Amino acid sequence: MTRTSDVLLENRTWTDVEDALEAGTRTAIIAVGSVEQHGPHLPLIMDTLAGDELSRRIAEKLGDAFATPTIRPGCSGHHMEFPGTITVPPETLMELIRSYCRSLDTHGFEHLVLVPTHGGNFAPVNTVAPELARELDANVVALAELDTMMELMNEGLREAGVEYEEPVIHAGAAETAMVLAAAEELVRTDRLELGREGDISVSRLLSDGFAAITENGVLGDPREATSEAGEAIFSKLTDAYVDRIEAERDAV
Q1: CA 72, CA 140: separation in Å to the nearest integer?
Q2: Is 128 within 8 Å of 96 (Cβ atoms)?
Q3: What is the per-residue pLDDT across 144-202, written as a single tens digit (0 to 9) for each?
């Protein structure tokens, strides 16, 4: 079994991993993040940071899993008007996911869990997961329902006493809260600015780009964020995803 302090695959030696596999650790959590703008107050690495934190928490709660290095960059073409954003085509991201999963399958991991933390990665993950499931011996689980993820994030806000709903989440209260919980020093609190509020046309956002929707790259109001809300969001996501993973493993 993997000790909770040792769930990060990147920190282990190959002999550690071999021993863990022989002892029954057969699940790998693969977060799929991005390098893209998150307003003037959050780091470009926000989605990857969220992936790091979420995959670690999932692996720790499962108790018999590794969190792999978060995949980055992702599909962020709709953010390219904002300097610093790095994007790759969906085909490139899917090929990287294939390579991750093929490698882990070769070594004997039996359950490969894909956890996208950036909206633009959900479609590529949902496209490649069934292909891999047919190809590999491993059970491939895609936790890639964007509406479900955003609903859980809004529930986390409410649970922490933040009465603020974000219909589309990006760099507002929810994501700012998550960074406050995971790496508070990375939030530029002197640059918190209100972004575009209310209903958003996701199709326009993807076709015309974020700059057509919001001048500062923010949706919602990051000033509503608290570290307590970030902790509640991570807990909500972790609990829901662990339940789903355990159900998928039991069904095999």
Answers
A1: 19
A2: no
A3: 999 999 999 999 999 999 999 999 999 999 999 999 999 999 999 999 999 999 888 88
C-alpha–C-alpha distance, residues 201 and 213, integer Å: 9
Can you read off the two tokens belonging to residue 164? 């603020």
Tokens of 39: 């307003």
- Look-up of token digits 């956002």: 205
Residues 6+ apart with CB under 8 A from 84: 35, 36, 37, 44
* Strand bridging mode 139-142 / 111-116: parallel
Between strands 111-116 and 27-32, the pairing is: parallel
pLDDT in tens, 35-62: 999 999 999 999 999 999 999 999 999 9
Half-sphere exposure of 99 (CA within 13 A, CB side): 7
